[in-house]
Amino acid sequence: MHPRAGFAIACLASCLATGCGTSPPSRFYALAATSAPASATSSLVVAVGPVTVPSVVDRPEIVVQTGPNEVRIDDFNRWASPLQDNLTRALADNLSADLGTPRVIRFPQPIAIEPDYRVVVEVRTFQSEPGVAATLDAIWTVRRTRDGKTQTGRTAVREPVAEKGYDALAAAHSRAVARASRDIADAILALQRGA
User: Fold this and answer.
1) Which of 17, 31, 72, 122 could form a disulfide with 90 if both were Cys (CB 3.0 to 4.6 A apart)?
2) Angle CA(73)–CA(79)–CA(83) in degrees, nearest 5?
3) Range 38-42 average pLDDT
4) What contacts 142, CB < 8 A, 6 or more positions away?
5) Chain-centre distance of CA 92, in angstroms?
6) What's the pLDDT tens digit per position in 82-104?
7) What is the pLDDT of residue 109?
8) Which residue, 183, 50, 53, is CA-closest to 127?
9) Is 32 inside a domain boundary?
């Protein structure tokens, strides 16, 4: 091999290795409870879960809607935990505040006593459009354990996102989840009053 060719190959390999190392670092986001924590005024025990999400968004990367029939998977902006876990935690934290009970647990976490109510959620749409909106469409069922009486509802909400950043998008999704939590809490309270 000619010495110049060897040197050119070494330079090319060095440039390629350097180019691979310059990708931006990944950023991680989580949904947060937005309901203000209340003092414990209730002894209700509520179990939340399972919570299911559409398979298209059931991945670590944030899936961005780019058109009516197109999505983009963002490799560098990710959920800090699996989206199902993230949603379940945010719902449970919001319900704890909305109902005034510290005894809201996430399914399948074991507990020593039977819950008074069980909440199951099927998320049908979880759409992310940075700088535009966060959309949540969920069907939920609340079941009173004592007699099996249920109430089913649907929460469909589109939260505007004023800024382009993913932190603003995660905050909008958190507000949408809080809206679903309030609807579920209202259903639990209605069943409780009917008891």
Assistant:
1) 31
2) 95
3) 73
4) 117, 118, 119, 150, 151, 152, 153, 184, 187, 188, 191
5) 12
6) 999 999 999 999 999 999 999 99
7) 72
8) 53
9) no
Half-sphere exposure (Cβ direction) of 173: Cα atoms closer than 13 Å: 25
**What is the mean predicted confidence (pLDDT) over 157-185?**
96
Number of domains in the chain: 1
In a domain, 5, yes or no: no
Domain of residue 185, CATH code = 3.40.50.10610
Q: Is residue 76 part of a domain?
A: yes
Residues in CB range of 195: below 8 A, 6 or more apart = 144, 146
What CA–CA distance (Å, rounded) separates 84 from 62? 13
Local confidence band at 68 (pLDDT 50, 70, 90 cut-offs): confident
Q: Is 116 helix (H, G, I), strand (E, B) or coil?
A: coil
Model confidence at 57: pLDDT above 80 = yes
